[in-house]
Each structure stands twice: as C-alpha cells, then as structure tokens.
Amino acid sequence: MSKTPNYSRDDFVKAVNEQIKNKEAREAVFHALDYAQEKHEGQFRKSGEPYISHLINVAYILMTLHVQVVTIQAGLLHDVIEDCDVTFEELATEFNEEIASMVEAVTKIGNIQFKDEKEYLAENHRKIFIAMAKDIRVILIKLVDRLHNMRTLEFQPEYKQKKISNETLSVYAPIAHRLGINDIKNELEDLSFLYLHREKYYEIVKLVDNRKAERDAQVSEMIEAISLELTEHQIPHRIFGRSKHLYSIYKKMNQKNKRFEEILDLLAIRIVTDTEVACYEILGYIHARYRPIPGRLKDYIAMPKVNMYQSLHTTIMAENGHIFEVQIRTENMDLVAERGIAAHWRYKDGSTGHGQAEIEDKLSWLKDFNRLTTESDGDATEYMEVLQQDIFEANVYVMTPKGRVIDLPQGSTPIDFAYRIHTEVGHSTIGAKVKDVLVPLNTELKTGDVVNIRTSKNSMGPSEDWLKFVKTNHARNKIRNFIQKRELQNREEMISKGENMLREEMRKRKMDEKEFMKKEKLEPLFSSFNIKNYDDFMYAISVKSLSLQAVMEKLQVKTKSIIDFTKLFGQKDRPKHQNRSGIRVSGIDTMKISLANCCSPVPGDDIIGYITKGQGVKVHRSDCPNIRYETKRLIDVEWDEESIEGKFEVQLSIYCVDRSFLLTDIVTLTQQQKISISYVNAQVNDDLIHSTITLKVMVENQQTLKRLVTNLRKIDSVVSVERSIL
Ligand code: MN
Fold first, then answer.
1. For residue 540, which of 218, 382, 445, 462 sits 20 to 30 Å off, Cα-Cα?
2. How high does pLDDT run on average in the chain?
C-alpha cells in the first residue's frame, strides 16, 4: 500500500489559493475553516492529531473532486452539529441554509446503525444511506469522510477496524462505484481488504512486488514502442502503465479461481489523447503493429457504459508473447472514469448558482442517456434502474427494532409497515411506536424511523378505516381480504338467523312452515323485493331491511292470490246486494232498477239508465263505454238522495312500482278513511317492476271515493289510480 497522504492546513490553504480564483469564494472557504477550527478546538483524533486535521483532509479530497464551494464548506463543517453542539439554526445564520442542510444530512446518516447481520442487508443499507442523503453532494461528503476515516483506521481498536471495514465494503464502496468514482472506490476497497484480511492482503502485496521489476520492464518497453509510433504520426498522447488494485486481484482470484500468475500476467497500459478521432487512430496503429486477441475489442466510446464510462479496450500480443490490455480514451473520458458523476460538475470560481438543481439536471440527462442505451445493454438498464430507485424514487426506509430495513413508498404508515413484516402482524396490530413514542396508526413514516408494532391476539382484526390511509397495495389487499372473509362469515350467520326468524313468524301465523319454507314458494317473491337470491333474502330479513310483515303479505298474496280482507280486518257487515237502488226513474215506479256491475256507479256520479230485456233498468255511469253506442234503450235516471242506503262497491285499479309495504300502505290508508275493503288482488307485471293492485271498496258516495283516490295517488310509488270498467 502506498503511503497515505495527510494534508496540513498549509497544504489546504495553498490549494485553495491556487484553485479557487474568486476572492469571495476563497474567503467563504476560509471562513468555514476558521469556524470549524474554533468549534473543534481542544478535540483530538485517535491519532493524537487535532480534530481539524480530519476536516482539512476531507475538504482537500473534496476539492480534488472539483466540487463546488458550498460543498467544500460543508465538508469542513460536517462534524460541528454532531461533535460541537452547534445547531442547524446557528449554522444557517453563520453560513446559509444550504450548507446547514448538508451538514445536518451528513450528521443523520452518521447516526444510522448499520448492523452487519446478514448479507442481504447490505443492499438495504445502501438504499437507506442514499435516501437519507437526498443530495449527491451529501453522499460525496460522506464518502470522503469515510475515506479519510479509513486512511486513519490504524488508530482504532481491532474490533472497530473490522466493523468499519465491513460496512465500508458493503455500503460505501458500492455507492462510490455506482457514482463512478473509481479512485475512491478502489482505495476504500483496498483499505477494507487490509483490515479484514490482513494476511491475504500482504500476500498479494508481496506477489505484486516480487514480479514488479520484471513487469515494469515489460510495460516500459511496450510504452516506449507505442509512444514512438504515435509521436511519428504526430498524435498527442499520454501513455502509462497501470496496476490493478489489490482487492480486485483478490476478488478475481477468489471468484474465478485463478492462480495469481494468470491474473497478473495481464499487463495493462492506458493511452490518453485529446479527441475521439485520435482514439480510433491510435487503435488503428496499434492493431496494425500488434496482433489483437479476437473478441476483446470493446468500443465504449460509441456505446458508453451507463455510469458514463467511455473508452476503447483492446488486448494485444507483443512480439515476445506478452499480453497487454490497452485502454484508449480522451482526457475528458479519463476524468469521468476516475471521478464518475463528480466529474460532471465543476465549480466556477465563486459561483453560488451551481447547486443541486444543476446536479439534478445532470442526473436527468443520465436518464435520457439510459433510454438510448437500454436496448443494447442489459447491465446498463439494471444499473440505471437501481440508480433511479435509489436517487429518484421517493421511497422511505424504516427499520424494525432489530435493525432490519424495510423500504416503503413515500406516505406509508405503521400499518403498511406491519403488513410488510407479516400478514398476521398486520391483522393483529393494535398500536405502533415510532422512535419509542406511541403514534396514531395513520402516521406517515420517515426514512430512518425505527418502528415497533404492538400486536394483540385479541385484536378485532383490521379496521375498515385503515383502508383510508394505507399506502401499499400489499396492505390494502390483505385488509380487504380479511374484511371480506369476516363479512362472509357474519353473513352466513345472518342468513341462518333470517331463516329462523321467518320460520318463527310462520309458526306464529299457524302457517305450514315446511310448505312455505320451500324455495319454490319463496323464490317468486324475490323480484318484488328487488332481491336476487335466497341468501340475500334471508340476510335482508335478519338485518330487518325487509320486514317479516311484508314478506308474509307477499307470501300469502302470491300463494292465494286473493285475500279476503274482510276476514283479516274483521269487517263482516258488507252488504252483498243493494236492494234499494236509491235511484229515481222519472215516470216509472214499478220497474226493477239495479246498478250495472261493469262501471259500479256511486251516488254523485253522472248516471244513465239502460232498459234491458227482462231485467229492468241497469244504471251505468254516463261515460261507461259499454253503453257508449246505445241510443234507443237509454232512459234518464237520477239519484234519489233520500232513499240511498248502505254502501256501494267500487273497483279500483292501482298501477304502481312494486315495493315492500306497498300493499300495507294502501290497505292502511283505506282503513284510515274508514272505508272498508271487500277484495284485494296484487299482480306483479311481467316486467317484474310494476304491479297492478285491484282494490274493491265500499263507499257511500262519489265524494268519499274521490277523496280515497286522491289520497291513494299520493302514496309513494303509486303511478295511477283508476276506477275499473269491467
Ligand atoms: Mn467526519
């Protein structure tokens, strides 16, 4: 391992003066430096150095990534909230909210406990890390912070070295890789490797060193030859050998089960030039001179990797049989390869408008870029999906009390969380604690929340209210299923309860229960109650949306079709015949006079007499259609008020939209008017919606009848009431 750089305050000040041209921007950086130095005064690192050295190193490395001035400032200040009790507000006042927010986010991430329980957690930890950062600049600060802590890890006790290295390998290095910051990724991996597998690490160092002189000579020879060739053709270039980093050698030895020699035998050269065209020219000259190994040419310039990597790769064989891997790229491509996303923004001196918005811009450019390459590169698609999920998707990452990370869509609640843990946990949830505080079940969870679900075996199961606020389809479906099942169970109970109620009622009415409970007896009733089937019918009875009274009426009407209401309502005084007609026929006294049955005139109606053959005079209403065409046999008649006795039977035809209780309403209303009913018949029409009720009543006169008809017409769902003509 090469010796790790350690930058002093002077190094940093010098670099700032050299690299940041704008005076105000320089002063802003120095202000942060002085502020941090003052706040961390008296604090020391495990190495014995003043704490500020950590911050200077972090800021220095950030500067080499060419981040903006605010990010350098935040880098210097990144530990003041955590270690110096400076508040967000103080920081926002002293500097600005942007910087304060970055420092706050860095602090929060620092407080996550990444427990290394199981392998699969690593992915979740990366997610929670990125989600909490919310800002690429925060991720960069955190990566650089970790890099410097790794560089100074030798001062920590061994168990901490292992713990931190594990975390670095599973969380930090992959994030650096994703963002394409290879320099940092490689160094993080090599340092972790050192602390996790010290022996293996030194074994590989030794092997590399042993062959180094030999390899260096081979590489130098090749570099010289190529460089000469390119100079002849006047192509500007830098050319150098490169070594693989130790951890990647270790991984390759493990994964591919190859001997060390096989891996190291591959010698690597990189050529950096000024233009894309020059890259292809160089490739041409090299292939003209050395034999390319078939299938090893990769054109990542025409087809970039989605982490923005661009380069030409080829593998050639030298005259002496040595194999060389050659990378050819422009300066700009080289920068992207080393720094990834970080290479895509550079601070302009003093510019403060170079903020998050621009980075987002870069990232959305990445999205477009992805769209162009998705069809051609499966890895690229996957890479982009993961990056999008991590950075663009509004997910929240919360934890169980045991540190398991659960990712949920934004707006999720403890109920969503509970169902994600286990369906049974969801069903038996009675409460939730977030960060040890009891919260309502519709509380929106935030990334980093530790959620503790309280369950009870005696819980009533999910509440329908939960459906109003759950966010995940998973929870929604589980809740719905449960409620449906519960209702179905209830329903079955209700159906049998309905059956019992109906039986009971039949017994009370002394009806033949066996006979009437038959489906073929009951089914014809369903349509008039707007009910589809037997179960619905019994359910309606049990929940009393359908009255037993109405059912019994229909059942009996349907069965007998005609009910003798006089029996039912105890009116036995109905005159069978009208002996005294109460009608006067001028000039005729002896003639038998009777009222026609077809139109049933009542006192007050306009009437006319018809002289029958042998049956005397039949009195019709004057508008009765049965006598409309008669001329000869008609005779004038009139009511004889004094001799009118008793009541007159009239038949009404009531057309209505069928419903429960309709018959009851009609009968009740008629009785309230003290009009007795002699006959009633209800007939459901073929359309199953309308019914015609035939009602025969006994009235004194037209006035009474008119009042009855007017009131019947007022009954809900009665369409028309007419006097029948038979
Ligand atoms: Mn730190």
1. 462
2. 80
